[in-house]
Amino acid sequence: MAADAVILRLEKLTEQHAEILYSCISNPHLYEYLEDQIPTFMEVKQKFKFAALEKSPDNETMIWLKWVAITPQNQYVGVVEIGIFDDQYAEIGFMTFVGFQNQGYAKIYSSLAIAEAEQRFSLCTLHASVNECNIASRKVVEKLGFKLYKVNRNAECIKGKLSDEFIYRLTL
């Protein structure tokens, strides 16, 4: 079945999701374009605990919305998050699990997250930060209507190599 014909649902992440999702989240393939290291199980559990409270573990003024996307067959497809800072700057991030990539799921579940955030908060714009080499994520944000806003040259060090960070912006 084509991904655009699938109805995904978002479920708010809780600490209990850590055990279910850790094998998906810890796949090294997902960290190819991220500065982050693969988190430990306890780190994921702690982050999900904060996510359930809609609080960031490292910024006490940020509202942190985080969901897991689930198919009608109860398959976990990926995670999506929107961080809203006290100055109303908001940024989206997403991660599609291996086995579900390049099938259109990220656009669907990201659209659902954006709609939910728009219902709850008065946001004017939403940003996405994407590594220049992450072509798949760049395509997703562009399909969502984001436009390239700014390029931060040599802003990221991925596997010992400097690369550019592309900042996209969506006007809501």
Written description of the protein model:
- A seven-stranded mixed beta sheet has the order 1-2-3-4-5-7-6, sandwiched between helices.
- It has four helices and seven strands.
- The chain is an alpha+beta fold and 172 residues long.
- Helix 1 (17-25) packs across helix 2 (41-52).
- The longest helix is centred in the middle third of the chain and has 16 residues, at 105-120.
- Strand 3 and strand 4 form a beta hairpin.
Mean pLDDT: 94
Helical percentage: 25-40%
The ordered string of helix (H) and strand (E) elements is EHHEEEHEHEE
Q: Helical segment tally?
A: 4
Molecular shape:
globular
What is the strand content? 25-35%
Sheet with most strands:
7 strands, mixed
The computed structural class is alpha+beta
Q: Using DSSP, what is the number of strands?
A: 7
| N-to-C span | 31 Å
Strand order of the largest sheet: 1-2-3-4-5-7-6
Q: Which regions contain 5 or more consecutive residues with pLDDT less than 50?
A: none
- Our Rg estimate from Cα atoms comes to 15 Å
Q: Would you kindly provide a brief summary of this structure?
A:
With 172 residues, this protein is of the alpha+beta class. It has helices at 17-25, 41-52, 105-120, 135-143, and strands at 9-12, 63-70, 76-84, 90-96, 125-131, 147-158, 161-171.
